[in-house]
Structures are given as C-alpha cells and as structure tokens.
Write a structure and sequence with these properties.
Number of helices: 7
Strand content: under 5%
Number of strands: 2
Structural class: mainly alpha
Number of domains: 1
Shape: elongated
Distance between the termini: 52 Å
Length: about 220
C-alpha cells in the first residue's frame, strides 16, 4: 500500500490529516466531484452532436418518430435524469473521501469503506489487502464493483439510444466494453491512479456522456 508519508499515519494506520490538509482535501474533493460530474457531458455532447448532424440525420429522426410517436421526449429525458443521478451518487462521496486520506495515498484510495475492529486493544482500521496476489484479486473485484455502480444507467441508455441510433450505439458500447476491460486489467497490474485505470475510466465515462448527449438530441427532436 502506498501512502503519502508513513510518519503521518494515525494509530489506526490511516493517514493523519491536519486541519490545513482537510481544508485542501475539501477543495480537491469539490474539484473532483464537479469535474467528474460535468466532464463526461462536456466531452460527450460534442461527439453526440457530430453523430447526430454528420450521420444519417433523416434516418435517425425517422427512428425517433417511430419509436416515440407521442411524448417520447419524456421517456428519453427520464433516462437522462436517471443517468445523471447515478453519476451524482457515485461522485458525491468524494467530498468526504478527501477528508480521510491523501490525494496520493495510492491503492488505499481503492477502499470504498473503512472498517473498524471492535474490542480492546484493536484500534486498527480494516482495509483491503493490496499486496501481492491478494491485492491483484482485490483490485480486480474493485473494478467489477465500479462497473456495477455504473452499469444501470449505461444499460438503460444503450437500449434507448440503440432504438434511435442503432449503428452508433453498437460502436459506442463496443468502445465502452474495451474501456471497462482495460480498466480492470490496468487496475490489477498498475493499481489506483491516472497511470493505472484512470485513463480507461475517463474513456468509459466519456462514452456515458455521449449516450446522454444522444438522449438529449433525440428528446428535442421528437
């Protein structure tokens, strides 16, 4: 497990943050939350626009009208709101995460829960073992859990978008699948951080943003 400074660990083995570090963590948390929430849309909307405008727009409009002849915009906007809700709920805990560990705490940041051992003389925090083969196994499962956290909206979006934009939806879900495979492989072999799974995670969330953008274009085309 990599930590910022082993001398700054508390008696439970967790990073010991002073007040200034907690304040900095709050800023870092808000930056990550806002960036994680808006970046997929900022990247995805222009791509969705290019798909809609440079592709077979007349065919797409025909599909949208056929699939959602009456008040279809509400079906599509419902999926969009659900997708944004999932993003919010997955990202909002970052505001608290930065108050308990450093931004560069390495694989410690893969822990989504910090457990406490009950009983006298057992004050250590319980975290995932990130060393050796056990660490590889734990990181593989953490990647799977991350997929589960994001699978519901991508599944809903992919189905609705494929009804309107069949070929683009197929290509997008193939790219998303490759991004998730890369996410798991890199998480296992490299670990937490931008040099590990981070790039693959960004690609996956961007695809989510493209799906959301296509939902919006379809909704406002009905």
């Amino acid at each position: 497990m990599s930590t910022k400074d082993t001398s700054s660990l508390g008696p439970d083995g967790m990073p010991l943050l002073d007040e200034s570090e907690i304040r900095q963590g709050k800023i870092f948390g808000w930056r990550n939350f806002l960036g994680g929430f808006f970046t997929p849309l900022a990247l995805g909307l222009p791509i969705a626009f290019l798909i809609f405008s440079l592709g077979d727009t007349a065919y797409y409009r025909q599909n949208i009208s056929a699939m959602f002849p009456v008040s279809g915009q509400w079906v599509l906007l419902t999926a969009f709101v659900f997708s944004r809700l999932s993003a919010f709920l997955n990202l909002f805990p970052l505001l608290e995460k930065e108050k308990v560990m450093h931004p560069d705490s390495g694989n410690l940041r893969a822990n989504m829960k910090i457990f406490k051992v009950l009983g006298n003389g057992t004050s250590g925090a319980v975290v995932m073992n990130m060393e050796g083969q056990t660490g590889r196994y734990n990181r593989a499962n953490r990647s799977m859990e991350n997929f589960v956290e994001n699978a519901a909206p991508i599944g809903v979006n992919a189905v609705l978008v494929s009804l309107c934009f069949p070929l683009p939806a197929f290509i997008l879900i193939c790219i998303y699948a490759l991004a998730r495979v890369a996410h798991q492989v890199l998480y296992i072999n490299v670990g937490y951080g931008s040099l590990g799974y981070g790039t693959a995670f960004l690609l996956g969330t961007t695809i989510t943003g493209v799906f959301e953008g296509l939902l919006l274009f379809a909704a406002f085309s009905t």
